[in-house]
Amino acid sequence: MNSRRPLNRRRRLLLWGVCLVLLAAAMAGSLVLGAARVGWADLWESPIVWHLRLPRVLLAVLCGSALSVCGAAYQSVFRNPLTDPYVLGISSGASLGAALAIVVGLESCLMGVGGCALATGLLTVAAIYRIASIGNRMHTTTLLLTGVCITFLVSAIVSLLMALNQDKMESIIFWTMGSLSAASWADVAAVTPVAAAGILLTAYHGRDLNLLLAGSETARSLGVEVERVKRRLLAATTLMVAFCVSACGVIGFVGLVVPHCVRLAVGWDNRAVIPFSAVAGGLFLLVCDTLARTLLMPAELPVGSLTALVGAPLFIWLLYKNKKRY
Amino acid sequence: MITFDDLSYGYSSTPVLENVTAHIEAGGFYAVMGGNGCGKTTLLRLAAGLLEPRQGRVLVAGRPVGGYTARELAQRVSLVRQHPQTDFEFSAFETVLMGRNPYQRRLQNESEEDWRIVEQCLHQTNTWHLRFAKPGQMSGGELQRVMLARALAQQTPIMLLDEPISNLDIAHQFEILQLLRDINRQQGKTILLVIHDLNMALQYCDNLLLLHSGAVRYQGPIAQGLTPDNIAAVFGVRAQVQNGHIRLSPDTAPPCYPQH
User: Where are the alpha helices (DSSP H) in B56-124?
Assistant: First the structure.
């Protein structure tokens, strides 16, 4: 009977076990590792762990999960393997807001930079949706192209801001490269509900995403309310990305590559790809961030370059290994 | 079963269908015929709810197509497209399983019945041996049969098929048409089939919906519809009908190219 079922359940269960154990181990490990030495015994009493490392670990897992899930969803909705969570201009919009806040000097306000980033990121995406929707339908190619165009436009403005405010350049660059070093419990509290709700909603639409991958007309004739599902998913993913970016800046590569790695492991069924992307993305960003802050202790590397340094060779190796299958 | 009521449609400014009125009887086996670009595909897409009419309406089982939810319509009407999109990596089995989507609840796994139906549809279309194959590993004809299997798995009373045999070898053309006719006869399904081969249509279909530049030229029993007059008017070729077989010859001499 086994040959009847191409979707292999036992392999998936095994992978679930491996992923969850790895995630738990990575979380425990990165609580202990760091510039300040903390033993296993006084892990829970240490203020460093409690106020710095634990929120940072949680934020890394949350943002990694959310970005990977968004990437997986975008790649199915747009039917394009090159889409990442920032393709609709949210990263550049958020960078603009952050840069403006830094230039004006809102850094000391509560949620100052993050809040501005959130607002401008959402505004940018809203503008792109308006431009690209025809009647009540969204034309995905136009949406992608508009997103790319606006990204270039807004990035140019950010570059100008940097050139004109060279004293603030360093903090703007630090922000646009992404960093989890400023993680606080407030960030965790802001991102958790959005990420959790967004991931659950995307997973709920797993089967719809499969059908969208087969083409929107096919999906429609097989019973998917295409426009409604697209709108709902794009709204949810936009919010997720906006909150992640406002908390930790623009961390690249996670949302692009993790879903592809997951597909190589579990196949193209989004009912598996979405939940696995959530776990694998959290694990991946957590490992990268831990490496970023421990490799050259006490100096800290930008996590955005670590994700690419770790992720690119891993992905190329996977592609090479699966050349025949992919 | 399907009523096209004073239906008009156009892509941007060019009209494709103009004031089409036609009625498709329940349980009928219809050939939809006409020259390239005469609106056959548009007609099927309108009936499948993929397009909204510019004017007039399409009724399926007495209800306007727009009044159904996507799920309800997918339980009643299945569509095999002329050019299936294939740039994804689902196996034939998974592709056919998608046909069960209108009956599945979210977050619920496929039932035993779903597996059984998919297996049966793969066997019916002679694609069981391809169940693990990805679109890139299948030929055009094999893919076309898998897409037909998916439509069969939808188990709808109405099937719309847009040139489902255009890529098939002769043996499979007969096999698929025979399968469609069996389904039509035994299960009483209404079938609309876009087909170009006049003799195949004559042999297998009962009724004809003949379109000519966006309007209905003929609807009724196929034997009375495929007359030399109609064929000449629609396709511009001369036809002779002998013993229920149509012989064709070009109406005009091939175009003369300017001499240098």
Answer: 70-74, 92-97, 112-124
Residues A47-98 have pLDDT tens digits of: 787 888 899 999 999 999 999 999 999 999 988 888 888 888 888 888 888 8
Q: Output DSSP code: residue A46.
A: -
- Is B253 within a domain? no
How close A256 gets to chain B, by Cα (Å)? Answer: 17
Is B148 inside a domain boundary? yes
Query: For the domain that residue B52 is a member of, what is the CATH number?
Result: 3.40.50.300
* Interface residue of B11, B98, B107 to substitute, partner A, most A CBs within 10 Å: B98
Tell me if B101 and A215 make a contact (CB, 8 A cut-off).
Answer: no
pTM of the predicted structure, to 2 decimals: 0.87
Q: Looking at this predicted complex, what is its ipTM?
A: 0.85
> Are the CB atoms for B42 and B220 separated by under 8 Å?
no
> What is the rounded distance in angstroms from the CA atom of residue B85 to the CA atom of residue A80?
13
- Interface residues from chain A to B (CB-CB < 8 Å): 4-7, 79, 204-205, 207, 210-211, 213-215, 217-218, 220-226, 263, 267-269, 326
Query: Are B115 and A204 a contacting pair at CB < 8 A?
Result: no
Residue B242 scores a pLDDT above 90: no
Rounded to the nearest 10 degrees, the angle between the axes of helix A90-104 and helix A112-132 is: 140
Tell how far CA A181 is from the center of its chain: 17
Architecture of domain A17-321: Orthogonal Bundle (1.10)
Residue B176: DSSP 8-state: H
Q: Same domain, yes or no, for B59 and B165?
A: yes
Structural domain total, chain B: 2
Q: Which two tokens stand for residue A313?
A: 């060779």
